[in-house]
Design brief:
The chain is α/β, with parallel strands linked by helices. The protein has 13 helices and 15 strands.
């Protein structure tokens, strides 16, 4: 199956899950009174014109805000939909993409923004089951800069996007636009890592690094649903207080306590943890090897502490890759597991439907809820992306492509 057909198959499966799980309200989405007259004919979009050596250099020189005319329906396919974007998540991957240091590299110029939610503004003549005014989110595996389809250029840092109707999903019940655009990527990653790869069991202890990030906070919630005891690390007491409020049993400030092995051992009666969820890398990974029991699972989720593993400007190669001592891995009998959620799903789309079904069920039961600490207007995209890079954000960071009244964004 080619990439386009595989992407379509994934989205169709997802829409069926949303329908059968009861996540659809009023037919396709929870619809309020939106009208085309509310939408300006010309908006704005962020454009990455070339890769930078680093994300900050890209922001300085190659990322701009440009006018964006509303897409002309006459130029679209009969199965296409125009989305008036309400909320777009600002993620770590969005930053790495601007320097070509992520494994998926959209060819510039492109509009960043992997995940976004909005309101349907136009439907093509062949579209069924989707109507103007429906509240939707867009599947980032089928549309936008991480996809491999012809819709790759339609990222969320814009007023408008175009997508095939089968790439749209109703907003999960109970989530706002801001929460919905922060839902799939983070929680699918957490589920794939902890449930599918890590096989976390009730009563086990999980050490979660980078716990105040969007994916880290999702991991805390998913681990707790699995019945695990969670030890969470981060570099700010204020952020860790939020993580604790979201369910972490214990928190450790790894900036103040870089040798956190002693604290972890004390919390586990000297035994060590059963699972490490490591989205940080660097020294955190090395110290974590001293915190595990024999036979533990070590989940490699990312390397936020060493973002320049790959060469900049879209060059291939990873001259600065993290290194783990194989002697410790052997002596402790560790299972070291790579957890590339998107790549794994692309290779085997069948793993996604049960994952989504579980996440939607937990969402509707109120067991998981994305936390968004920062929101910005689209005009302030530069400030938003720099805030994400600095680590100011707790959980999610969201762009609003238009200034709307308080009643327009749930």
């Amino acid at each position: 199956m080619d990439d386009a057909r595989a992407a379509k198959a994934r989205v169709i499966a997802l829409r069926m899950i949303l329908i059968t799980s009861g996540s659809i309200q009023d037919g396709v989405g929870s619809t309020r009174c939106y009208h085309r007259a509310m939408q300006p004919h010309t908006g704005k979009r962020v454009v990455v014109s070339a890769y930078g050596e680093t994300p900050l250099q890209a922001l300085d020189e190659h990322v701009t805000l440009e006018d964006q005319p509303r897409p002309d329906p006459a130029t679209l396919r009969a199965g296409d939909v125009i989305i008036a974007i309400r909320s777009a998540a600002v993620g770590w991957v969005d930053l790495l993409m601007t320097s070509g240091q992520y494994q998926h590299m959209p060819e510039p110029p492109y509009t960043p923004g992997l995940e976004y939610a909005g309101v349907v503004d136009h439907v093509g003549d062949a579209v069924e089951g989707v109507a103007v005014g429906d509240e939707v989110l867009v599947d980032a595996l089928a549309v936008g800069p991480r996809s491999s389809t012809e819709y790759r250029g339609y990222g969320g840092f814009a007023h408008y996007a175009v997508a095939p109707a089968d790439a749209l999903m109703p907003l999960p019940r109970g989530l706002s636009f801001d929460q919905a655009c922060s839902f799939l990527g983070s929680y699918e990653t957490a589920y794939h890592c902890l449930v599918a790869r890590g096989r976390v069991q009730s009563g086990e202890t999980v050490l979660i690094h980078g716990a105040s990030g969007a994916t880290g906070m999702a991991a805390v919630q998913v681990a707790k649903i699995c019945g695990a005891r969670v030890i969470a690390t981060g570099r700010s007491d204020d952020k860790l207080a939020v993580v604790e409020a979201y369910g972490a049993d214990h928190v450790i400030n790894s900036k103040d306590t870089p040798r956190f092995r002693d604290a972890v051992k004390a919390l586990t009666d000297g035994r060590g943890v059963d699972v490490v969820y490591d989205g940080v890398g660097g020294d955190i990974s090395l110290e974590s090897l001293r915190c595990v029991r024999f036979g533990a699972r070590f989940l490699i989720v990312g390397w936020a502490a060493t973002p320049f593993v790959a060469k900049g400007r879209g060059q291939r190669g990873a001259p600065n890759a993290n290194m783990l001592p194989t002697n410790l891995i052997m002596m402790k009998g560790l299972d070291v597991l790579g957890c590339p959620t998107v790549i794994a799903t692309g290779r085997d789309p069948s793993i996604r439907p049960p994952r989504l079904a579980a996440l939607l069920r937990w969402c509707e039961e109120g067991l998981i809820k994305p936390h968004v600490s920062h929101t910005f207007d689209l005009d302030d995209y530069d400030e938003a992306m720099r805030a994400k890079w600095r680590g100011d954000v707790i959980g999610g960071c969201v762009l609003h492509p238009r200034r709307v009244s308080e009643g327009d964004v749930r």
